[in-house]
């Protein structure tokens, strides 16, 4: 069994910060369960573009208000507490946070914690060694 409190991850190597968001990685590839789980906050008044070409991501909004735009189709969706979106087609997308957004994010394959977004918002595929 593995138990962790989000706040215990503050300012550790599992607490990844950028100008527009913060992601505390509660479960990583090293836990060897087939997915990673992140508590992510997107700061109010910011715009973030992501493109996970190597991962499928499910995102469940548990707080806040904003919009999600599929950069491939131009479709826009409202984000609020209770909204979930699944990036099962590796869609490039933009999130605009009207209010601070808190998201529970699940990645498959799991991230390791060593990934950084490249200039296109893409994470490289890094896998844990056996």
TrEMBL record:
UniProt KW 4Fe-4S keyword: no
Nucleotidyltransferase found in the keyword field: no
Catalytic activity: (2S)-4-acetamido-2-aminobutanoate = L-ectoine + H2O
InterPro entries attached to this UniProt entry: Ectoine_synth (IPR010462), RmlC-like_jellyroll (IPR014710), RmlC_Cupin_sf (IPR011051)
Keyword tags: Lyase
Superkingdom field: Bacteria
Pathway named in the protein's UniProt entry: Amine and polyamine biosynthesis; ectoine biosynthesis; L-ectoine from L-aspartate 4-semialdehyde: step 3/3
GO molecular function: ectoine synthase activity
Xref: Gene3D superfamilies: Jelly Rolls
UniProt-listed Enzyme Commission number(s): 4.2.1.108
GO biological process per UniProt: ectoine biosynthetic process
Residues in coiled coil: none
HAMAP family: Ectoine_synth
Function: Catalyzes the circularization of gamma-N-acetyl-alpha,gamma-diaminobutyric acid (ADABA) to ectoine (1,4,5,6-tetrahydro-2-methyl-4-pyrimidine carboxylic acid), which is an excellent osmoprotectant.
UniProt family annotation: Belongs to the ectoine synthase family.
Annotated protein name in UniProt: L-ectoine synthase
Record organism: Brevibacterium aurantiacum
